[in-house]
Design goal:
Elements (H helix, E strand, L loop, with lengths): L3 H13 L21 E5 L2 E4 L4 E4 L14 H11 L10 H13 L5 E5 L2 H16 L3 E5 L16 H5 L10 H4 L2 E4 L4 H10 L4 E6 L15 H11 L3 E5 L11 H6 L5 E4 L10 E5 L1 H4 L18 H16 L3 H22 L5 E5 L2 E5 L8 H4 L4 H13 L2 E2 L8 E2 L6 H15 L3
Parallel strand pairs: 3-13, 5-6, 5-7, 7-8, 8-9
Antiparallel strand pairs: 1-2, 2-3, 4-10, 9-10, 11-12, 12-14
Helix pairs in contact: 2-11, 3-11, 7-8, 12-15, 14-15
The structure holds pyridoxal-5'-phosphate (PLP).
The site of pyridoxal-5'-phosphate (PLP) has 15 residues, from α4.
Keywords: Aminotransferase, Cytoplasm, Isomerase, Porphyrin biosynthesis, Pyridoxal phosphate, Transferase
InterPro entries: 4pyrrol_synth_GluAld_NH2Trfase, Aminotrans_3, Aminotrans_3_PPA_site, PyrdxlP-dep_Trfase, PyrdxlP-dep_Trfase_major, PyrdxlP-dep_Trfase_small
Subunit structure: Homodimer.
């Protein structure tokens, strides 16, 4: 396949946009080559500016769980746009999507909408600090919670790929309030809590990590965090920006049976438009302005186009009770297929999978945290990535990313992908 026009467009973009992209993970820095410029997408496929068709395993990094240009979402956005695109005043639509989200997710009474996952996590932490009247937070190395200052400490995929896990521009004052723990290591968390008695407002965690490949929590990890939080007057924040409305109707809270105090959403909840949200039980949410003292706001928050897209997406997921099972089955099928061909070609690998999230690591040891995620062979990954691209398959241009399976993918697409991996892995 040729990517000539994409290369030209990238050269033009580089002149006026830093690195040619508006979000660093889109650049091909970790794998070499130039990013592909998309013209349009439908269902499971991307169509690029060179006229190539690619099977998409990234799906805008998660949101397009039902495939690209999903009809009910497109229709809802078009109809709403005709009525005005932003008012800065309340609309009934906001209550409708809020009520539906609250009905789908366990353990939340109220939800507030923002414009990105970053904003959701940033606001959740401010709320936790205001509510507990404490300053410090614990985050896990390799977990990503958006690009706000408090979180850019060992921040997972994007930041690691670009060699800046701790970004310049974050002040020492801010960094000192973020304590870093190892994913799946409860003892480590216990030690941090002991050393910072009565100072920790919140523990924020991706309850299934998706930004260092896909790393499910070990048995007892989330339960242990819940116990530690309850015992020490710490709020547990589940960052479900990636997992919410993807791994189950009610996200990882439903899947694990562990209750969080605050839950963050993004990606799927916006149906492909810029939306984030955070939610909690009533007494916590009532701590927000205008009811409470913790300030949080947004000119475009609850934007009618974004809410229309999100509502259409959540309704589709809510109405199809078999969806999450169906996605998990497709992902398992892909897993078994990839495993078979990689074994047959004597490739050293580990595959992690849960629900519709899957990642392939080129290392034999179990991948359970940031350190083990970093042991994969990046040279092999580069060949894998570019080989698949030549076969018309798009996976994320970094070994630290999860693949997202969508309902639009057919078993023929999955078979084609497995055959392509067989072909490509013969060249390693
Ligand atoms: C993508 C992501 C975010 C950030 O969301 P943006 O919409 O990119 O700001 C936060 N947390 C997790 C777990 C994510 O995957």
């Amino acid at each position: 396949m040729l990517y000539k026009r994409s290369s030209q467009l990238f050269a033009e973009a580089e002149k006026v946009i830093p690195g040619g992209v508006n979000s660093p993970v889109r650049a091909f820095k970790a794998v070499g080559g130039t990013p592909i410029f998309v013209q349009r997408a439908k269902g499971a496929y991307l169509y690029d500016e060179d006229g190539n068709r690619l099977i998409d395993y990234i799906n805008s990094w998660g949101p397009m769980i039902l495939g690209h240009a999903f009809e009910p979402v497109v229709k809802a956005v078009i109809e709403k746009a005709k009525l005005g695109t932003s008012f800065g005043m309340p609309t009934e639509l906001e209550t409708q999507i809020a009520a539906l989200a609250v009905s789908m997710v366990p353990n939340i009474d109220k939800i507030r909408f923002v414009n990105s996952g970053t904003e959701a996590c940033m606001s959740a932490v401010r709320l936790a600090r205001g509510f507990t009247k404490k300053d410090k937070i614990i985050k896990f190395a390799g977990c990503y919670h958006g690009h706000s200052d408090s979180f850019l400490i060992q921040a997972g995929s994007g930041a690691i790929t670009f060699g800046s896990p701790n970004s310049p521009g974050v002040t020492a004052g801010t960094a000192k309030d973020t304590l870093l723990a190892t994913y799946n290591d409860l003892q480590n968390v216990r030690t941090l809590i002991e050393a910072n008695k009565n100072e920790i407002a919140a523990i924020i965690v991706e309850p299934v990590a998706g930004n260092m490949g896909c790393i499910p929590p070990n048995k007892g990890f989330l339960e242990g965090l819940r116990q530690l939080c309850t015992a020490n007057d710490i709020l547990l924040i589940f960052d479900e920006v990636m997992t919410g409305f993807r791994l189950a109707r009610g996200g990882v809270q439903e899947l694990s049976g562990v209750d969080a105090d605050i839950v963050c959403f993004g990606k799927v909840i916006g149906g492909g438009l810029p939306v984030g949200a955070f939610a909690a039980r009533e007494d916590i949410m009532n701590y927000l302005a205008p009811l409470g003292p913790v300030y949080q706001a947004g000119t475009l928050s609850g934007n009618p186009l974004a809410m229309a897209a999100g509502l259409a997406m959540l309704q589709a997921l809510d109405n199809d009770r078999a969806i999450f099972q169906r996605l998990a089955e497709k992902t398992a099928y892909l897993h078994e297929g990839i495993e078979k061909v990689l074994e047959a070609n004597n490739v050293v690998f580990t595959i992690n999978r849960i629900g519709s999230m899957i990642s392939v690591h080129f290392d034999a040891a179990p991948v359970v945290d940031l350190k083990s995620a970093g042991n994969g062979d990046n040279e092999t990954f580069k060949k894998f990535f570019h080989g698949l691209l030549q076969e018309g398959i798009y996976i994320a241009p970094s070994a630290y990313e999860t693949w997202f399976i969508t309902d639009a993918l057919t078993y023929e697409d999955l078979d084609f992908t497995i055959q392509a991996i067989d072909k490509v892995s013969k060249t390693f």
